[in-house]
Amino acid sequence: MPMPFAIASFCSPTMSGTPNARNSGSMTPMSDSHDNTLRPGPAVILVEPQLGENIGMVARAMANFGLSELRLVNPRDGWPNEKARAAASRADHVIDAVRVFEDLPSAIADLNFVFATTARERDGFKPVRGPVEAGRALRARAVVGQRTGILFGRERFGLSNEEVGLADEIVTFPVDPTFASLNIAQAVLLMSYEWRKAGLADETETNFSAPEMLPATKEQLQGLFDHLEAALESRGYFRPPAKKPKMVENLRAVLTRAGFAEPELKVLRGVIASLDYFSPKEPRGAGYPERKARADREAGTGRQKPETGGEGAGY
To answer: Which residues contact 197 (CB under 8 A, 6 or more apart)?
Structure first.
């Protein structure tokens, strides 16, 4: 079962990491309208992670938002780890490219800037950022070609003060202080999201949107009013008759407030037509009801009513 989230850190000696036995895969970023989202992202560095499942869920969270460089410092259960691959849910390009290091300084030696994540206040003089500001700072450094990283600590107790002290700056999340513990994959997801969002031309844009529809014309809206009024009149809705003008006024107020588009009016007209012209005894498709035939004739769109049954005319 996944363990809670902890802390993070930074440093600088030299030593190359050990790549995973498999060849590293390349990630195809999610389609976006802004090239900034395609810049290389920060490395995610997990310090002494314990569970393979947590590593896999971290890989999945990274892949969701276009990050692909995962570094492990002395993982408890060794590497490769098939439990991590299974938990990654097909984020194999992240798992295949994992690099393993013996210590933290080696893992961050080639980076220009590193954030340390922590859930609690630390002694020291390092700047502390929220995730939004940190995401934007990482983007700004990527634009000028700097290599960056984000450190995440052990599941049980995070990073030591010494490890946090190796980072350039600290990032912390605005969690409820009475329950500040995050699963490590959740923490990675939050930072990955902020990295992704900071690269959008408009932070409110989405990968897809609702279809654009023109507002219905007043003529179309009037047609809906007339149809509904006639259908209700034929069924004795306007009772007592003296109240009909006010009742019609209220109906129009309700229907105009919605600001319908033309396709939406067509749906409503179809619903009203089915309720108006057809019945359980004469359902749609079972014939051509006289009321429907009369309405079509008055509109100039009618056809001759068949003498026997057959397919009806729909709306």
So the answer is: 135, 203
Cα–Cα distance list, 74 to 80, 99, 180, 190 (Å): 12, 10, 26, 24
Highest mean pLDDT of the ranges 170-179, 231-240, 271-280: 170-179
Would you say 118 and 159 are in contact if contact means Cβ atoms under 8 Å apart? yes
pLDDT at 122: 78
Q: What is the mean pLDDT of residues 39-64?
A: 95
Query: Lowest-pLDDT range, 65-69, 127-131, 202-206, 230-234?
Result: 202-206
Q: Is residue 79 within 8 Å of residue 46, measured between CB atoms?
A: no
73: β partners: 47, 101
Contacts of 97 (CB under 8 A, 6+ apart): 19, 20, 24, 25, 68, 69, 70
**Distance between CA atoms of residues 205 and 32, nearest Å:** 9
Query: Which residue did the predictor score with more confidence, 51 or 300?
Result: 51
Q: What are phi and psi of 183, to 5 degrees?
A: -60, 145
* Ordered structural domains, the chain, with CATH: 18-198 (3.40.1280.10), 218-299 (no CATH)
Query: What single-letter amino acid sits at 227?
Result: H
Residues 98 and 81: beta-carbon distance below 8 Å: no
Helix (H, G, I), strand (E, B) or coil at 258: coil
Please, which pLDDT band fits residue 311 given cuts at 50, 70 and 90? very low
Mean pLDDT in the chain? 82
Helix (H) or strand (E) holding 310: none
CA distance linking residue 29 with residue 64, whole number of Å? 9
Radius of gyration of the chain (CA): 32
Burial of 157 (0-12, 13-18, 19+ CB in 10 A): exposed
Angle between helices 131-143 and 184-198 (to 10 degrees): 50
